[in-house]
Amino acid sequence: MENQFAGHAGDDIRAQVLTAALPYIQKYTGKVVVVKYGGNAMVNDGLKEAVMSDIVLLSLVGIRVVLVHGGGPEISAMLGKLGIESRFVDGLRYTDAQTAQVVQMVLAGKTNKDLVSLIGVLGGRALGICGIDGGMIKARKLEGKNDLGYVGDITGIDTRLIEHALSDGYIPVVATVGTGEDGTVYNINADTAATEIAAALKAENIITLTDIRGLMRDVSDDSTLIPAVKTCELDALIAGGIISGGMIPKVRGLEKALESGVKKAVMIDGRVPHSILIEMFSNEGIGTMLTL
Amino acid sequence: MENQFAGHAGDDIRAQVLTAALPYIQKYTGKVVVVKYGGNAMVNDGLKEAVMSDIVLLSLVGIRVVLVHGGGPEISAMLGKLGIESRFVDGLRYTDAQTAQVVQMVLAGKTNKDLVSLIGVLGGRALGICGIDGGMIKARKLEGKNDLGYVGDITGIDTRLIEHALSDGYIPVVATVGTGEDGTVYNINADTAATEIAAALKAENIITLTDIRGLMRDVSDDSTLIPAVKTCELDALIAGGIISGGMIPKVRGLEKALESGVKKAVMIDGRVPHSILIEMFSNEGIGTMLTL
Amino acid sequence: MENQFAGHAGDDIRAQVLTAALPYIQKYTGKVVVVKYGGNAMVNDGLKEAVMSDIVLLSLVGIRVVLVHGGGPEISAMLGKLGIESRFVDGLRYTDAQTAQVVQMVLAGKTNKDLVSLIGVLGGRALGICGIDGGMIKARKLEGKNDLGYVGDITGIDTRLIEHALSDGYIPVVATVGTGEDGTVYNINADTAATEIAAALKAENIITLTDIRGLMRDVSDDSTLIPAVKTCELDALIAGGIISGGMIPKVRGLEKALESGVKKAVMIDGRVPHSILIEMFSNEGIGTMLTL
Amino acid sequence: MENQFAGHAGDDIRAQVLTAALPYIQKYTGKVVVVKYGGNAMVNDGLKEAVMSDIVLLSLVGIRVVLVHGGGPEISAMLGKLGIESRFVDGLRYTDAQTAQVVQMVLAGKTNKDLVSLIGVLGGRALGICGIDGGMIKARKLEGKNDLGYVGDITGIDTRLIEHALSDGYIPVVATVGTGEDGTVYNINADTAATEIAAALKAENIITLTDIRGLMRDVSDDSTLIPAVKTCELDALIAGGIISGGMIPKVRGLEKALESGVKKAVMIDGRVPHSILIEMFSNEGIGTMLTL
Amino acid sequence: MENQFAGHAGDDIRAQVLTAALPYIQKYTGKVVVVKYGGNAMVNDGLKEAVMSDIVLLSLVGIRVVLVHGGGPEISAMLGKLGIESRFVDGLRYTDAQTAQVVQMVLAGKTNKDLVSLIGVLGGRALGICGIDGGMIKARKLEGKNDLGYVGDITGIDTRLIEHALSDGYIPVVATVGTGEDGTVYNINADTAATEIAAALKAENIITLTDIRGLMRDVSDDSTLIPAVKTCELDALIAGGIISGGMIPKVRGLEKALESGVKKAVMIDGRVPHSILIEMFSNEGIGTMLTL
Amino acid sequence: MENQFAGHAGDDIRAQVLTAALPYIQKYTGKVVVVKYGGNAMVNDGLKEAVMSDIVLLSLVGIRVVLVHGGGPEISAMLGKLGIESRFVDGLRYTDAQTAQVVQMVLAGKTNKDLVSLIGVLGGRALGICGIDGGMIKARKLEGKNDLGYVGDITGIDTRLIEHALSDGYIPVVATVGTGEDGTVYNINADTAATEIAAALKAENIITLTDIRGLMRDVSDDSTLIPAVKTCELDALIAGGIISGGMIPKVRGLEKALESGVKKAVMIDGRVPHSILIEMFSNEGIGTMLTL
Known about the structure:
Chain A is an alpha/beta fold. Helix content of chain A is 42%, strand content 22%. Chain A has helices at 7-28, 40-43, 45-60, 72-81, 97-121, 160-167, 190-200, 234-239, 247-259, 275-281, and strands at 32-37, 64-69, 87-89, 92-94, 126-130, 137-141, 152-157, 171-175, 177-179, 185-187, 205-210, 228-230, 264-269, 288-291. In chain A, the strands form 4 sheets. The first copy, chain A, has an 8-stranded mixed β-sheet with strand order 5-8-2-1-11-13-14-12, sandwiched between helices. A two-stranded antiparallel sheet of chain A has the order 3-4. In chain A, β9 and β10 form a beta hairpin. In chain A, α4 packs across α5 and α7 runs parallel beside α9 (247-259). Chain A is globular and about 60 Å long. Chains in contact: A-B, A-F, B-C, C-D, D-E, E-F. Chain A binds chain F through residues 1, 3-6, 8, 10-11, 13-23, 25-26, 29, 53, 57, 60-62, 272-275, 277-278, 281-284, 286, and chain F through 1, 3-6, 8, 10-11, 13-23, 25-26, 29, 53, 57, 60-62, 272-275, 277-278, 281-284, 286.
């Protein structure tokens, strides 16, 4: 990396950033941090490399980071090639038996292993797993007002595989398919899986990469970013329309994780390079932090 | 299971089988056994369940079993659906860039996870991994007289991930794709990968499931089965045409594993239900055993 | 062992026996099983070797087996040679001071060490101990309507010596003499000692070798064997005369072991070779199983 | 214990004895000391209790003491009662098959367990074992100019059982019978067994209790005791008749133990109460010390 | 050490002292014993060496001994050299800011390290620490009817440093200065610190070296020594004037230690050489023992 | 700390500093770094706090930092108060017996404990030790052309105490006095002690805080700083006068540490706040780095 701030002034800045960062590094060392990865940060190759590079750096300083990813665009592309129609109901993919097989194959065999490979090239050691491995994610058919086919509702997380992977020094990269008692494979929403996994692991922190700066009073005005929210304020924010649409289930998932023992939940802007490092290791943080 | 041999006679038989089996069980407990799984035993659902059931039983009595699988038919089927032509050169699949991606996706995302799921339904705990995970299988382009595209030649096996999985109580199920230093994905022959993995693990035993009874002097006459062969006899058997065609590289791979410290290599008939149990836990064994 | 059932049929049988046995082997591995050894199986050299061979096989597959033995015939023979009269009161040996010394000497010095030696010849590693060692069996004079001299009533079992022996990889072979607080040596009934030891160890299983097939509705008709009994049924069976005489205290002892945490108590026919293996590792079992 | 030296003078003496003793206690803590016990100290009940009391005290302060005992008088008495003639050849008991059984029974079942019981009464925890247990003492027929029947020549000591016993906190009490490969039981000389065990354990110290004060230039004059001898001086002492008769093999056995790594060998007077404590924990020691 | 009691009589005495001492040695091995060291035993070089020699012997036999020392005379001498007036209020040194610095410097840098050095010369391994190290002694200004300046009242003992030192094999030598939350250094009374440390460590025993024989009904008559006192008798003894003046807070401190879990508290005569050994390792003990 | 660089630009800088720093943090985690502390950074209270703050931050991220300090000014001040003349020979303090006592007292009791206290106030846990503790620094009289009295030449470093302190989670703060075999206390040069300690610990890094920017070709021109030097260039730099005076022994000491296995030696400007953090955790480093 080229040195953009040389000399005594640069030394001051470095000292200041490091003095601020070291206590956070110490605070997180040995702790579990779950990163939910999706959106723009997943389709832009430069951002993808920046995120994976941050993940590797976190693991280098002893943080037990778990990467949970989605993969909608790749699934849609493969369904297209196979001539299978993508159908969405209430914003969720309707998953027939044939689609469920494609979801498993693409998520666990392509998206997941590609991330594992990239982490390897960047100097990390990752293990790509899905909810089938070690019976990690148990699920049943999600019941709702509309039938979604093989979309699953999580009934249990067996965290042993993730914990083993972390203890053995791997970065677990998790594709979110799950299985029923009889072996039926279900397609699981990645946000939901990430919050359930964070809750089951009693993670220190769950970080969700999104395509916006965070919660904002006025979406068009960055200066209206809400840096911190208490869960008790959520009802009012939803009632006031500040939180709406697809953001509601995301926020409710994070709330549930906090209630299960996760210490902190943050939504950060996946479009900002290295936003994970800035969030975790500086006094200011970025995005919106949710706490009990 | 229904009792087909009741009363005192049955007791005699049970006592005899058990008295014979227990020392073998004790011999293998804690030892690594690599099973190469392919052929008919992989496409027939009844045989597939019998093999996975044997794998689960081996792990129940403390044997550290590693399952290495192929997946040709499923790959061919998917390539067909995607309208990509399957082309074979010298009996090996020519693998262009697009095909390599499909191989990775199908082997690691479908075949592999389906086996993991079946083991789970049968009461075992498996972890599906491929050569990308933890940088397990390092490869480079296989050089030969004909170009095979992204077919890989193994340059190194990092056994740590398999060893961690075994220590943590999982049955590692291995899909044989590998990566180059730059992250390029290669398609790896499963027989070759199984013997290299067995050698790297210094396995006690490598068992290859095939579609014949073993080495036979006359393929059409089961009574000509050769139960045991020394590696020093291989040259003569090949010269005499007893070993020929695709069997030659299989046998040479097993020979190499033995030379690297594996104690015993056997080829058994995957079409016989529970042939793995019979091979490992009875005085007679079945198939052909190869030793130094 | 000669192969009495060759070819495909033999393979089927082997697969069937092994498929049935392996889950039991896994179930018992690492668990404590107490075997009470006495009767015909102790005086017939062929049966003695078959029993000791089973004991060695159990220990080979990781079962923590404890052998508790009697020794009446050898004691009587030695008393005879020494010109000391054997006298029985209520079916128990009247034990004067001189007899108590002979009991200790023969049980702990001859019967016990001979079994240890035989286990060694069969490939096992045994440690012969008696209730004096490590203060294992504490006793006081048994009070009853008739004076029995130095016959002891167990007041406490210190299981540490047995647990140390098991952890160190030995098969503990236990001669049942005990000591009072002042060092007085008492003669202890082996059935009683075995059930108290099983209870104190919270054994998985206690197996009593007897000279009959098990509990039978008609002693002269093998087909009337009662394969399983609940302890709540014992009163009725005693009242009905099905259980009578010396069998009553044996059964009550097993009942007490079950109430103290032992999972299963079985009485099997010591005259059937390898009856221990058949009982433990097949679906049918043999003899009579007693559970809560 | 009554206080025979009260007041300031007593304090001086206590301080002096303790100041002298503590470094020795520290020196021996955690070290293995083999005590060969026989002779008068074994037949006199008061001396027996004093010796066992010393053994218990040694173990209390963390010394890993191993007690190896003989038992000639009790064996002779039992043979007498059984009407079997005791015959001695070259000072060693001629042991026919019947005698060998009695030796095993009396040594391992009576003498040994009586010592274990006495140690228990005095507050220690002992484990009585013989060479049969755990295959500890392997032997073959002793060949010499005269046939001695089942008198054994030690071919190997497997120290694991003793080491396990010591690690588990027991005082191993060893009866010296051994077994051949086929399970034949041999009568082993206790002095020889003690030196071989000390050598195999690389003991810090071997202490032999005898019925004389030590090596003396004039047996009738206590003032001629030789407090320390180098092994290089033994030839001259034997040539000069100072060491003669049964003392020669004892001394040669100790010499062999020293050559195998035992640090110090001492012969002390078993007739002096607490001679073990005085030897080990005072500046002067008693008896004769043999070193390389 | 010269041998003042040779021959058989000497052997008897040694055996008697050792037989009495060994159970005490065993009792204290691995236990924590706090020794409060001050008074004449600290200024007389011969006594100082005898005490340090006892401390080394205790640690040799595995006792976890903690030495807490005062240092009044050396502090007074240094204050004198620096021309700072020593002023006492109610028997405690008035400590202004300048004096507090001298107290820290002399206690922690001179008295403490000189003791560490002497222990090293005598063969022990000591670690000199003060209440500042590892934040061991937390204190605040002692409030009372008269202002004492920087004299501290202990608010907490963090025992980890002492426990680490003991586990690592060092004899902790403790200088009694402490710090407030803001780093202010306080002068702490050594008797108080010793009892608080003993209480926090749940020590087995606290031994206070004083300049008298113990509690005496008539200070001028040694025969009126009270060898043992229960804490419930203290009120009466104080009311009766038997315990008076500076002895009252000492005794109350020991009482508090007992109430916090210390098993035994003794005051012994530091003027008697090796009084610590005699107290701990003989039946009689010396001085006065205080128990609940 | 106030935020001097807010907004997106600040985020960029933070990301850049952190991305650069994390690999260094990972590199040093668990490694031993010795910091030699003296000069201006020791007498200026602001710099002292910045240095101690850096030390605490290093320990927070798992670096095993050892602080070795001098203390000349405080020693001189105390000698002055006590009316003892400070005399220097060849730049080293002539140390008579009286001076040696003052050196020990001030260094170990005042300077050392004051640093420990400051580290404690800043949130770290330190243990103040000197070469007397645990016999850490063994020394003899330094022989040279002029007599220096009790100035010591190090004969051995026993690193166990430092290693124990590090393992137990303390920052060892080392005052450089040492002792001879007879307990004589010697005054040891802190630069020499630091390099010997670093060598004995096979430290990863030794950092010497000085009052200049590093080695400079022209002392008056900061731009002539030599950022890196190989030890093979030292002779030429000394011959050329670039390294001269008191800098020669400092540089030679660092050279010796490198030859003993220390990986890197750096001299940095103690007058720059947080120079330790900048040196260790940025790409540029500061000062002069010396390597083999």
